[in-house]
Request: fold
Amino acid sequence: MDAATLSLGALLVAIVVSCTVRLHVGFLAIALAWLVGVYLDDMTAREVMSGFPTRLFMTLAGVTLLFSQAQANGTLDLVAHRAVRLCGGNVGVMPVMFYVLSFVLSSIGPGSIASTALMAPMGMAVAGQVGIPAFWMAIMIGHGGNAAALSPFAPAGIIVNGVMDDIGLPGHELATYLHNGLAHTVVVFGAYFAFGGLRLLGRRHEGELQVPSLEGTDGPTSFDRRHWLTIGVIGALLSSVVLFDVDVGLGAFACAILLSVLKAGDETEAVSLMPWRVIMMVCGMTVLISVLEETGGLALFTRLLADISTPNSVTAVMAFTTGFISIYSSTSGVVLPAFLPTVPDLAQQLGGVEPLAIASAMNIGAHMVDVSALSTLGALCIAAAPKHEDSRALFNKLMAWGLSMAVVGSVMCWLLFTVFRVGLG
Reply:
């Protein structure tokens, strides 16, 4: 058996383990990369380690450090509280507001997991008080965060855009973000208004809503100096990235240090909140993918994908494949780092297909399923459900929703990128 086949086998082992075992797949991927690269393909240890994505690591660490400070000092929590009170008692508008809140928070940097962690306790508590089905509130919060997961400032967006740069698809950050946002918004709002949202719009809730705080009853209830400093620093970073092409990772490190110096943030607490598991998962898988590329395993993987696709079906097939695997595995940590590198050769072998269409289908398909009960987003919503809610029934509904989204995402991507060619010129 040649090195290409064995290296592809190592990738499949990593994917299967990520779906079935609670072993850190990033560390496993590094170990597999070492075994395959050094002992099966005569690579040196230095050559294997050269596949470590230093720039991606620095960008993820900087951005997550800054927004972990904003989460730890209560800034994001206070912003969310103020926005909830804008609903004016209209029950049907409340889930829409939480979708918008999750989308905006995820877009500016924390990403889908952090935004859902912030929104789920508030949203599910509000749902219990005003009689909104917990399932629908969970869907709106989870998909709101995931619709913005591919923002250029969010961890998943940084990962995806980094891989797309490496495979020769740079400059599509805005298109990637908007494609994913459009798909989630169409699906979720279509389902919400078709299956009960319109009825909720006619209801009103009288009285004060009891909205829980992530910091407890002793936490701040109004903006103070540290919160305004945090908002100003984040705004300055986003503006400098857009207007002056400042490196977002290095700029985020500088902003995080500035907040610490000004006593507006605690970097020690923020470091403990950073998603180190996901960061190392992505980096480990990237090391393994670099070994696959060296051994020819990536080319073999691409040929296998091409064998099950046609130019007319590839967007649907890739969306379904990445979506189904993402139900059980990490979307940004495992699935997309494994599949996106195949895009250029896959488009070339099939012919007549835009590489961006295939990449977009993979991105959307993988993210569309992430509100299943097995995902972090779904689990956060279940954990925050009101005490009177049947958690087993909510689990089953979210599981069925996640599975159905593999098919819905496949159809959506086929319509967007094969039939209508949205954003492809």
